[in-house]
Every structure is written in structure tokens, then in C-alpha cells.
Amino acid sequence: MDLRGTDLAGRRYPRRVTSPADKLPIKMLNDRLLVRIGRDDGERRSSGGILIPATAQMAKRLIWAEVVALGQNVRAAEVGDLVLFSPDDRYEVEVQGEDLIMLRERDLHAVAAERIEASTGLYL
Predict the structure, then answer these.
(1) Are 36 and 66 in contact (CB under 8 A)?
(2) CB atoms within 10 A of CB 84
(3) pTM of this prediction?
(4) Positive or negative CA dihedral for 95, 100, 104, 110?
(5) Domain count of the fold of the chain
(6) Would you write out the chain's pLDDT as a tens digit for each of its 124 residues?
(7) What is the CATH number of the domain that holds 61?
(8) In a domain, 120, yes or no
(9) Is 3 part of any domain?
(10) Is residue 12 part of a domain?
(11) Virtual torsion, Cα 109, 111, 112, 115, nearest 10 deg
(12) Coil, strand or helix at 117
């Protein structure tokens, strides 16, 4: 296996070989959030016990997801919080073999976290 490369002048140099174990740090920019959708968001059960497949169309259903990373200008959420957003406002990205969702802070509808003072009377 050749571990050397050649530049435009024909000089040879060692080429870095990357492996799946190599990881580059990611810095989220501005008001962006990286979230993970739970595996249980596929098939659901109604309150009566009826199984609803993931392919069933529902009118504008919002999705809960866990925040994995966020940019320096995000003020409403922290890593580990659950956020509510519309599936129409998302961009999918694969990071280290895991499918994640990229959002803007303005696309969030709600944030659920232990640190938030209870004022609405709603709980997850």
C-alpha cells in the first residue's frame, strides 16, 4: 500500500491515511442546533392501543428531538434538552455514521428541560 502522494512539482510526500477512528471536532455556528430524533418516533400507538405506522400521513405533526450540539448564539436551549420543531424546517446530516438534524433556533416551537421553571401547567 502506497502511503505517499505527489504534489504538482512531482515531489513525493507522506500522505495521511484516515480511518473511521479519526474524528474531527465540529463547531456549530451562530444560531444552529444539531439534534437527534429518538428511535421511537417511527411507529406509534394511539391512546386506544391502535398501532399507527411511520408511513401514515398526519397533518403538520411536530417532532420532539434531543439537542446534541449548538452554536454560540443559541439562547433558548442547551445540550441534552428536548426541542419541538416542524419536520418541514429540517436539514438531515450524517455525522460519524449517525443521522442527525440541523435546525435554526428560530425554527423551534418549544423547549423541554429540567431547569425550566414550570409556568404552563404542561409536563412531558
Answers:
(1) yes
(2) 13
(3) 0.64
(4) negative
(5) 1
(6) 445 555 666 666 655 555 455 677 778 889 999 999 876 555 677 778 888 776 666 667 788 999 999 999 999 899 999 999 988 888 898 888 888 999 999 999 999 988 777 666 566 5
(7) 2.30.33.40
(8) no
(9) no
(10) no
(11) -150
(12) coil
